[in-house]
């Protein structure tokens, strides 16, 4: 069995603070709200909380635009509240991972305020400034991730600065050793406070290729794609190894890098067992299968064989070399039950099936707040229901400059927009889902009267209880965290079937067979011979056969695990 680690055996729960729990009635979730709900999380059984940003921020991108890395935004509370949260979580043996957003700062960060003052300011080179082209236009053709050019002209010093995201999120210049010193000092400060790890925002984009060349342009695109010159840039691994040497290796942490565009080959470098960078990365191949010409604003859906191929490639390629992160959802993705399951008749079955399918794979599972209740997308009918800067900007650029129709754009936003995951947590069937006594910053999903925590925590048949069981099983049987993965029936269009094997399991079963029906049809399946007579470990239908049959019929969204 490979080297054991707490972060390989634990389950991570992501909290998006502004949508989790509001303790003071201003409509925005906060740190004291999280403190109130720690017993709920302990009951669920998770081991680690990842907190999306709670730092001082103008909130242009909901806190991913930070103006003080060592301050708490007043809307979320105070440093005293944070210290109490950390202590109370630790008392419950729950670890706290914080979000590290250091590809960019807010334009209100003191470093940027200094930087834009003059070309010879000591902080000028903390950011990426360039002269205009002779005709006054931007230094290159890159488009920002949030629409428009990736360059903002600053009249005062007559140069442009780079922002891969919003203009209020200027990119830091990691080639400047003073930037690295400042970031590493700040990280060290949080480590000394006692936090247990970092989730690193767009960390694959911190090193930009010299010369910042024009990027390739897709047909019909207004801007060029910065990808080839920004994602996995020339020094990204040097900088992460330096970070590891100077900070990470000195503490007992878990680290996960958000690395859009990452391949399994690159992941083995970012998160290899002996590469001294990070513990895991978030990969985007599953999501990228639903993009067209580099744009997520489409109707494209992934097929089950494609989905299986992506997961299986990661499971197989990283085996013995690096560690996987397992996630369906986060604050940037739509709800998984809406995306891959059913919001209708099979809502509960499909939410449980998706949980089982993910949690039985090899890697560290992430549960995004509300996923454990089967929360769904919220459907909007007009743009003013939208809060996310990405969706709002994309709507304007695509309808006003690219001829996309209003109805099409709304349909794309409803399918893939980030607000889907950001509606308030559904605590109960009381007003505003029990999230706030005031007016929430974003409307609650009207289905809260049916889907909410109060209705689920004590119901043994709920989605919540199913997650609780999956999380508990992981701690009981080493084959779940450590068994080797093998895909069966790779071309099957309805079933996802795989095995996990741990020949030298110190306790519990040595092999699991996982069968998940991703369709609304009943599907007959002949189980592999070696599982005949194997016992049932868990299933999402009450009357799934307790002993594996030679041939079984899997009902809509039925999922089962047999063990021997
Ligand atoms: O959500 C996306 C779909 O277009 C991604 O491109 C996303 O912006 C990207 O994964 C980076 O995400 C992270 O950095 C952003 C922030 O807005 C996201 O919330 C964060 O997860 C900028 O800090
Ligand atoms: Ca509040």
Summarize the structure.
The protein is an alpha/beta fold and 564 residues long. 28% of the residues lie in helices and 15% in strands.
Strand content: 15-25%
Oligomer designation: single chain
Poorly predicted parts: none
Please describe the biggest sheet, giving its number of strands, its sense, and whether it closes into a barrel. Answer: 8 strands, parallel
Small molecules in complex: 6-O-alpha-D-glucopyranosyl-D-fructose, calcium ion
Widest sheet: strand ordering: 11-10-9-5-2-1-13-12
| Overall SS class | alpha/beta
What's the alpha carbon Rg, rounded to whole Å? 24 Å
**Shape, please?**
globular
Give short descriptive properties of this protein.
single chain; 564 residues; alpha/beta; eight-stranded parallel β-sheet; five-stranded antiparallel β-sheet; 15% strand; globular; binds 6-O-alpha-D-glucopyranosyl-D-fructose; binds calcium ion
Description of the structure:
The chain is α/β, with parallel strands linked by helices. The strands form five sheets. Strands 11-10-9-5-2-1-13-12 form an eight-stranded parallel sheet. A five-stranded antiparallel sheet has the order 14-15-16-20-18. It has a three-stranded antiparallel sheet with strand order 6-8-7, with no helix packed on it. The relative contact order is 0.10. It has 18 helices and 20 strands. The chain starts with 5 loop residues before the first helix and ends with a strand. The chain has helices at residues 6-9, 31-36, 38-44, 79-91, 110-115, 177-193, 227-230, 236-246, 264-270, 285-288, 304-318, 336-340, 347-359, 389-401, 406-416, 453-456, 463-476, 479-482, and strands at residues 12-15, 48-51, 55-56, 68-72, 95-100, 129-130, 151-154, 159-162, 197-200, 254-258, 280-282, 325-326, 364-368, 484-488, 495-501, 511-517, 523-526, 535-539, 551-554, 559-563. The radius of gyration is 24 Å and the shape is globular. The protein binds 6-O-alpha-D-glucopyranosyl-D-fructose (ISL) and calcium ion (CA). Residues 22-24, 26, 28, 30 line the site of calcium ion. 6-O-alpha-D-glucopyranosyl-D-fructose binds at residues 61, 64, 101, 145, 165, 201-202, 258, 260, 296, 331-332, 418.
């Amino acid at each position: 069995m490979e080297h054991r680690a707490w972060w390989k055996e634990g389950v991570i729960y992501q909290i998006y603070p502004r949508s989790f729990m509001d303790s003071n009635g201003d409509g925005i979730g906060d740190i004291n709200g999280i403190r109130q709900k720690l017993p709920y999380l302990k009951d669920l059984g998770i081991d680690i909380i990842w907190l999306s940003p709670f730092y001082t921020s103008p909130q242009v991108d909901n806190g991913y635009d930070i103006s003080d890395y060592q301050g708490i935004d007043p809307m979320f509370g105070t440093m005293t509240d944070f210290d109490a949260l950390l202590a109370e979580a630790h008392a419950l043996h729950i670890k706290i991972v914080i979000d590290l957003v250091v590809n960019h700062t807010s334009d209100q960060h003191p470093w940027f305020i200094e930087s834009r003052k003059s070309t010879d300011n000591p902080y000028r080179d903390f950011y990426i400034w360039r002269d205009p082209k002779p005709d006054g236009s931007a230094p290159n053709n890159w488009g920002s991730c949030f629409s428009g050019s990736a360059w903002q002209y600053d009249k005062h010093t007559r140069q442009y600065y780079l922002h891969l995201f919003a203009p209020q999120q200027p990119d830091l210049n990691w080639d400047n050793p003073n930037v690295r010193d400042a970031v590493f000092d700040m990280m060290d400060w949080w480590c000394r406070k006692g936090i247990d790890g970092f989730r690193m925002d767009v960390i694959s984009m911190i090193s930009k290729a010299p010369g910042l060349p024009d990027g390739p342009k897709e047909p019909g695109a207004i801007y060029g794609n910065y990808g080839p010159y920004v994602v996995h840039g020339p020094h990204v691994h040097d900088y992460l190894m330096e970070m590891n040497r100077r900070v990470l290796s000195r503490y007992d942490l878990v680290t996960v890098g958000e690395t859009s565009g990452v391949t399994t080959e690159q992941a083995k470098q970012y998160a290899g067992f002996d590469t001294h960078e990070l513990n895991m990365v978030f990969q985007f191949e599953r999501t990228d299968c639903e993009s067209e010409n580099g744009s997520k604003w489409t109707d494209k859906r992934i097929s089950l064989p494609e989905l299986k191929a992506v997961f299986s490639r990661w499971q197989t390629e990283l085996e013995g070399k690096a560690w996987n992160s397992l996630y369906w959802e986060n604050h940037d993705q739509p709800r998984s039950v809406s995306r891959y399951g059913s919001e209708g008749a099979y809502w509960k079955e499909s939410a449980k099936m998706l949980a089982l399918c993910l949690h039985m794979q090899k890697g560290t599972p992430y549960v995004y707040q509300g996923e454990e209740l089967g929360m769904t997308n919220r459907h909007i009918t007009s743009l003013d229901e939208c809060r996310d800067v990405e969706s709002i900007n994309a709507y304007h650029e695509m309808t006003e400059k690219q001829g996309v129709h209003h109805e099409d754009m709304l349909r794309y936003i409803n399918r893939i927009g980030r607000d889907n995951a950001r509606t308030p947590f559904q605590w109960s069937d009381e007003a505003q889902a029990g999230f706030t006594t005031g007016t929430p910053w974003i409307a609650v999903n009207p289905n809260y009267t049916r889907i909410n925590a109060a209705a689920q925590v004590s119901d043994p048949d709920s989605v919540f209880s199913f997650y609780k069981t999956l999380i508990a099983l992981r701690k009981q049987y080493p084959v779940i965290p450590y068994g080797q993965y093998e895909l069966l029936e790779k071309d099957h269009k309805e079933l996802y079937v795989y095995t996990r094997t741990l020949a030298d399991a110190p306790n519990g079963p040595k092999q699991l067979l996982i069968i998940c029906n991703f369709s609304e049809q009943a599907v007959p399946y002949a189980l592999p011979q070696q599982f005949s007579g194997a016992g049932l470990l868990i299933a999402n239908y009450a009357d799934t056969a307790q002993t594996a049959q030679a041939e079984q019929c899997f009902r809509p969204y039925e999922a089962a695990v047999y063990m021997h």
